[in-house]
């Protein structure tokens, strides 16, 4: 792996409560807001979303980041902040950290971020003490100008208030804050009363700040960020190597392409823009914290405190927050990104010549855990990965981590790339007589390759009777060089042919590859013939809509560079009266094709669920209108697993649905790639989904399997069969009245909005009897 580039850093008054006008309550703040972020980056990942939002505000000229402070003892907190600041082109932003030992000192995604991205601070030990840095930064600011944002426990702020005069300032902490700080925006507490995590972690600091802080404080309570979910758009709309995507992927409660409750981003939004039409601010009282860390709002005395009450509808507020997140633009970059980083999250298909057993499966080579491994009980074998949805990457280096048996260490290696689903391979690197010095050793291998491939294969042989591989990374060099401009764009295909309701991938190449701004726009000359949807840094999906021709174009933001592809759309192979629909607009377009009676259906989307507005039912649906009693049966033969979260899985199956509305009433039988068979339902339009009460687990099956749903009056039955003839008794039954007409069909969802899953159905039969 290339040595990651590291950047050097440049490195007695009355206590007067400032007026509420200084906070801009009720208005959008027009002037640039000078902020200091104090964050517990590590215990939760919405801190990263908050910092990304602030960098978006910096890019838009709305904010200036004076410093970022880590308020916990984790050795990776300060390096993580430094890495994110550096990624967004601001390595000069000073980073301080709490020096108290043992306070929330665990490591999580913050260590992953620090190890993946360039930065100067190699550990928290190298970062200055947060209290000293606060004093150094604040004394250099104009009076009443700095806005402090606290999104973690208040230990740093408590220490600042108690700090004595020093070489930076003759003022004590209370006096310094009173003179230099405009306001404090604090994510803490619940309002008008309750308990919240940040306050409870350091009850004494929370009490001290609420009692003694000498400027106005606005509290953004736990009830504000709870229920506002953000982050997904960063994964879907920006580059794959974005640090927020990496942080969310490595946080257990979120995962790749997930969203997190927005406690910290909402506080940052208020700090930058004020109340605007996002919030109402309750003022004229004070927030008190008791000895247990619980808080209560009291109408008197008036200490200049206020707390937020949500005003804007949740979907609109989520968009406001994420508009700022995706506005954050990377600065100069120079590092290597593992393009196989998200394979374990459904963003690639792994195959191997063989594997010893399930505990040594091929997927172990991509699980980010060097203690697990892929093993094939043969002296020579191969493993390959194909990126999802036609994405291509130009790998210029790869690394492998060996297992625990020296006799299984590879002696020879051959790396190859393919762009035709493995029909042909181009050898990119070949090595013989390689030596690994010990168990779990990682070695990197550079290669001369400028071609982007959709699939990579590694052939390896050992001196023993088996081969092992603990980790395999495929590294693309990411470089954005200041004042280097794009001189040209090219597409990997000049012309393509797709079916109506079909799709194809296009990838763009940049020249030079180290240009500072690689932002491009994709357009279709006739969206009624084919649409185009960007799905990654270099990739877009062209989806056919009707027979005809059009031109797909990709162009730089200034329009000076462009490339085109001629698209021919042929008639759909889906026979009437079947129709193709994508419920609730999955981010990655799906498709359907029918040949010899086999339906091949590709579908994206978050799944069939409704817990929250933005990810209510999303899937591909191939259906017909039915009225009265009906039976739909099919043989499901294959389903790829592209789910991105540990508690979800791709699904395919049969569904009866009242409409294509995203929260329509439905009844379905579904199968996961692991063969888990369920039926579930929604009895009323817009009803929230409770799977404990609205589903039945029907055991496990092995694909292929015949499935059938039957509507008889208001009784809905599910059947399975090994041969499609002997259906036996119903294995699931539910009673619900469906309107007429309704829809009956086949569905597929990836349970991963960043990609798709593909299912194959055959022997599809729909029979219906109209009621009199």
Descriptive account of the structure:
The chain is 15% helix and 37% strand. With 772 residues, the protein is α+β, with helices and mostly antiparallel strands. The chain has 4 domains: 26-329, Ribonucleoside hydrolase-like (Inosine-uridine Nucleoside N-ribohydrolase, Chain A); 337-479, Jelly Rolls, CATH 2.60.120.260; 488-570, Immunoglobulin-like, CATH 2.60.40; 579-769, Jelly Rolls, CATH 2.60.120. It has a 10-stranded mixed β-sheet with strand order 3-2-1-4-5-7-12-10-11-6, sandwiched between helices. A 7-stranded antiparallel β-sheet has the order 32-35-44-37-38-39-40, with no helix packed on it. The longest helix is centred in the first third of the chain and has 14 residues, at 46-59. The model is unreliable at 1-28 (pLDDT under 50).
What attributes does this structure have?
772 residues, alpha+beta, Inosine-uridine Nucleoside N-ribohydrolase, Chain A, Immunoglobulin-like, 7-stranded antiparallel beta sheet, globular, disordered N terminus
The number of E-state strands comes to 45
Low-confidence runs: 1-28
* Class inferred from helices and paired strands: alpha+beta
Largest sheet: 10 strands, mixed
CATH topology of the largest domain: Inosine-uridine Nucleoside N-ribohydrolase, Chain A
The portion of residues forming beta strands comes to 35-45%
Shape: globular
CATH architecture of the largest domain: Alpha-Beta Complex
| Mean pLDDT figure | 93
CATH top level label of the largest domain? Alpha Beta
| Backbone CA Rg | 28 Å
Query: Which strands sit side by side, in order, in the main sheet?
Result: 3-2-1-4-5-7-12-10-11-6
| Cα distance spanning the termini | 72 Å
Number of helices: 13
Classify the helix fraction into a percent range: 10-25%
């Amino acid at each position: 792996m290339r040595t990651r580039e590291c950047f050097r850093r440049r490195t007695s008054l009355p206590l007067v409560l400032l007026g509420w006008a200084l906070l801009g309550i009720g208005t959008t703040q027009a002037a640039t807001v000078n902020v200091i972020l104090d964050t517990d980056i590590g215990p939760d990942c919405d801190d990263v979303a908050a910092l990304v939002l602030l960098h978006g505000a910096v890019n838009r000229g709305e904010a200036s980041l004076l410093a970022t402070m880590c308020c916990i003892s984790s050795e990776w907190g300060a390096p993580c902040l430094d890495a994110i600041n550096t990624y967004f082109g601001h390595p000069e932003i000073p980073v301080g950290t709490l020096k108290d030992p043992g306070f929330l000192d665990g490591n999580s995604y913050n260590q992953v971020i620090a190890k993946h991205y360039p930065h100067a601070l190699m550990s928290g030990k190298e970062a200055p003490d947060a209290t000293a840095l606060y004093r150094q930064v604040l004394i250099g600011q104009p009076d009443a100008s700095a806005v402090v944002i606290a999104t973690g426990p208040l230990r740093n702020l408590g220490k600042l208030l108690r700090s004595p005069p020093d070489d930076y300032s003759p003022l004590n902490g209370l006096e310094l804050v009173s003179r230099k700080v405009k306001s404090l925006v604090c994510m803490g507490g619940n309002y008008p009363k309750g308990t919240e995590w940040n306050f409870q972690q350091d009850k004494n600091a929370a009490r001290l700040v609420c009692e003694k802080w000498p400027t106005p404080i606005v509290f953004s309570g736990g009830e504000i960020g709870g229920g506002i979910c953000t982050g997904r758009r960063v994964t879907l709309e920006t580059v794959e190597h974005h640090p927020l995507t990496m942080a969310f992927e490595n946080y257990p409660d979120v995962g790749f392409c997930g969203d997190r409750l927005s406690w910290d981003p909402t506080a940052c939004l208020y700090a930058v823009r004020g109340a605007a039409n996002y919030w109402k601010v309750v003022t004229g009282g004070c927030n008190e914290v008791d000895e247990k860390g619980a808080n209560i709002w009291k109408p008197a005395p008036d200490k200049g405190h206020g707390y937020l009450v949500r005003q804007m509808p949740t979907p609109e507020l989520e968009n406001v927050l994420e508009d700022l997140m995706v506005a954050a633009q990377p600065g100069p970059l120079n590092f290597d990104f593992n393009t196989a980083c998200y394979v374990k999250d459904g963003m690639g298909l792994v195959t191997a010549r063989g594997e010893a057993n399930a505990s040594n499966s091929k997927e172990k080579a991509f699980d980010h855990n060097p203690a697990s491994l892929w093993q094939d009980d043969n002296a020579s074998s191969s493993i390959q990965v194909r990126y999802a949805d036609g994405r291509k990457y130009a790998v210029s280096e790869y690394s492998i981590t060996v297992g625990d048996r020296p006799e299984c260490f590879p002696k020879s290696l051959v790396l190859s790339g393919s762009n035709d689903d493995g029909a042909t391979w181009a050898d990119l690197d070949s090595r013989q007589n390689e030596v690994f010095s010990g168990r779990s050793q990682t070695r990197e291998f550079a290669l001369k390759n400028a071609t982007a491939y959709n699939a990579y294969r590694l052939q390896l042989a050992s001196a023993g009777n088996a081969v092992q591989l603990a980790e395999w990374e495929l590294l693309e060099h990411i470089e954005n060089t200041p004042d280097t401009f794009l001189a040209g764009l090219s597409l990997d295909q000049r012309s393509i042919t797709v079916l109506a309701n079909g799709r194809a991938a296009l990838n763009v190449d940049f020249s030079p590859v180290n240009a500072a701004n690689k932002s491009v726009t994709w357009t279709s000359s006739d969206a009624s013939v084919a649409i185009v949807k960007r799905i990654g840094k270099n990739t877009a999906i062209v989806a056919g809509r009707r027979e005809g021709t059009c031109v797909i174009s990709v162009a730089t933001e200034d329009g000076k560079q462009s490339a085109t592809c001629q698209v021919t759309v042929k008639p759909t192979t889906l026979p009437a009266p079947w129709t193709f629909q994508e419920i609730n607009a999955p981010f990655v377009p799906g498709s359907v094709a029918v040949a010899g009676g086999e339906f091949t259906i590709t579908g994206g989307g978050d799944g069939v669920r409704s817990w929250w507005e933005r990810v209510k039912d999303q899937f591909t649906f191939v259906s017909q209108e039915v009225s009265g009693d009906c039976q739909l049966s099919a043989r499901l033969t294959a389903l790829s697993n592209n789910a991105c979260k540990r508690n979800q899985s791709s699904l395919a199956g049969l569904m009866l649905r009242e409409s294509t509305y995203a929260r329509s009433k439905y009844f379905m039988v579904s199968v996961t790639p692991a063969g888990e068979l369920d039926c579930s339902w929604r009895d009323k339009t817009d009803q929230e989904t409770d799977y404990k009460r609205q589903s039945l687990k029907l055991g496990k099956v092995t694909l292929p399997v015949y499935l059938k749903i039957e509507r008889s009056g208001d009784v809905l039955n599910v059947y399975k069969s090994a041969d499609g003839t002997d259906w036996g008794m119903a294995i699931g039954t539910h009673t619900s009245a469906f309107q007429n007409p309704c829809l009956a069909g086949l569905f597929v969802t990836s349970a991963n909005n960043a990609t798709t899953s593909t299912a194959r159905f055959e022997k599809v039969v729909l029979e219906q009897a109209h009621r009199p």
